[in-house]
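INTERNAL AUDIT FORM
Audit reference: QA-55
Scope: verify that the stored structure record matches its stored sequence.
Auditor: D.O.
Record contents follow.
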Amino acid sequence: MNGARKEQRKRRRTGFAAGMAAVMTVVWMSAPLTALAAEERAQEADPSADRQVRAAYEEYTERLDGIAWQWEIDDNGFEVIEEQMFPIETEVFGTVLLVPAVEPQYHRLVLFWVQTDGRILDRTDYLAVNTWYAGSMEQPFRSLSAVAFQDLNRDGRLDIILIAKCRNRTGAYAARDYQMGDVLFQGDGGFYRDYRISDEINRFGMNKSADCIIAYVRDGFSTKFLYTASTKTELLQNGAKVVEEQDYVRQFEKLGSLEVMPVTYDIGRFTFFMIYLIDEQGDIVWSFQPMGDYDNLYALRGIACKDIDGDGMKDLLVLGRYSNSADVSEMAVASSYEIYYQRTGGFETDTEVKRRVVCGNDDTVAGLVEKARAYWGWSPET
């Protein structure tokens, strides 16, 4: 390996933005495991598998590091995503072309910064979507949904927003697409990631659009409190809006008297929807996320607090209209419902009725309650 190649490999393992400020370097070094680091951890569990992954990683990085010109990207086994190539003004390189590409065998996303003559000035595959499966070369990336540019940290330089469409190879999401967001900030020596920001974007559902990411990173709005709040006061202080027409108190057999409080929170043109059970002291006893895989609440049709499975305890059925669209001005709206059964220690989400009772746009809360009771073989009259 020649000196230039060794230096290139060194940069790939320590971060691709040379000359970065010390605080940025700390961020890089505390980031989640890269593919290579994850493979090193996997060695203890399966040395044979580790050797195979290491060999694959070395072969992959040889191909990636060997690309010096734009036309060599395809020759080295990477497919350029042409519809998502854009020029960007950078402080260190001037105006360059951002060229995303995918390695199709391992489903890994790579970004190249390309000079006007086609020379590759920099590259990175240190992205959230490439660290999803620890210790594996294969990742869930399927396509690049969006690339956007915005000054997110208000330093006068354009940063990069990425949204990738993903699909897991196994498990509950094996047949369903989901999104993963990421941000690369422009620093003095190039671009860098703060893994903590990427983690919160994806952990708390703020990866629905570039507008959501901008609202969080640049403007300071966040859905995190919807999942971490412990009191009603905390929810309201952070901007949650109570859906007052569906807000009421009910006596739950195992949990006592609780306020059933649905709330919404707007961020980046999307409306998040949650339901909380609040005790008399104002503490959150339980919470529900009826939106499921949907991105946006269009309308709350109603909440029923009735015994549905015939065990004598009140359950919750929630009916809403939701959308899945990066552009809510052109959203396709669908009706969906969730059932939560009261149990001794809390609530259990239905996995039976929804598979058999399909919800249409004309269905009502009362009608769905009766259909669900019929599934369980009872009604109040019997």
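Auditor finding: record pair retrieved intact. Residues 86 and 98 are 5 Å apart (CA to CA).
Action required: none
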